[in-house]
Amino acid sequence: MIEAFHRIKRLPPYVFAEVNALKAAARARGEDVIDFGMGNPDMPTPPHIVQKLVETVQDPKTHRYSTSRGIPGLRRALSDYYERRFGVEIDPETEAIATLGSKEGLANLAQAITSPGDVVLAPNPCYPIHAFGFIIAGGAVRHMPAGAGEGDFRETFMEALHRGVAHSIPKPIAVILNFPQNPTAQCVDLDFYEEVVDFCLRHEIYILSDLAYAEIYFGETPPPSVLQVPKARDIAVEFTSLSKTYNMPGWRVGFAAGNKRLIAALARIKSYVDYGAFTPIQVAATAALNGPQECVDDIRRTYKERRDVLIDGLARAGWDAPSPEATMFAWAPVPEPWKEAGSLEFAKALLRDANVAVAPGSGFGEYGEGFVRLGLVENLQRTRQAVRGIRSFLAKPPSLPTLDIRKAV
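The structure corresponding to this sequence follows.
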């Protein structure tokens, strides 16, 4: 038997696969599964954005190859967004690039800057591409425990960052930031970024920041950008996305902005592997950034309503889950009777017995164990329906062959 390919061997089994298989089987049986498992926005893209796409696609000239850096108007729109939102001036020619979603941008930047054996520091738990993009590229990842709710987050994170540099050989080339964070919904302020930037400048480490949830927040103060910190652009690049802000996940439009050297490296890789998003999509994305923003307020308000219904309902069901300040996720500890079983077995049982799908925390890294992630991607009626099912499920004792299932995993 031929061995698995080298890069494939470095990827662990997909933890979500078991839950996804159970979900597919339940739906095949005609069961109504309420799916909080995937962060897939369910609301429609705002009409004026769709209209611009339809209008542009009528022109046959737009059907030709586009440009991997993104059309100039889209990069200018991103620059205007940064100035309007963060007070940061971005050069659209040298400090901005369009990507096929932030996920593609992160993965291709990892390919551009990683040599075999290079070390990258990544929070754990984290969105999988933050770590595995560098593993696929031949690097090594040092995980920094950075779970929400574990004492003073800033102190814990900075201690982990110091340890990561002190105990890594060779010295790390970069640190990954993602705030508001997927999956934990952890938020940080500008003071946090200032401390991280100061540390990374002194140690000559790049900062790769994922700000995909910049506009999905529920308090009065919007999340900051690391690029607001003076001298951040000497070492930092930041990824953003239209997926969540404008309900455009399938459109695959994202951006990177910041350090010229990193942007140039990403542009060079992309020039070999893609021609950029379909031009009508880029034109419509430009209309999203430059057009009326009331739709963003509406999307944010909808997620807040869903959050409140879900968190209040879980509390009444006896499941104490923190209310997230941002993102489209709730990060909830596995209820006490199920803690010994672990997040994967709990997620499987919840799907099997309550027809509610959640994402096991172990899928986001070892420090995600003991939690599950719930996406705010079902309407209020179905969220209330899910809560009723969860309440009935939690009222019964855990029904597992054995709670010591770690030996079998």
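The chain is about 40% helix and 15% strand.
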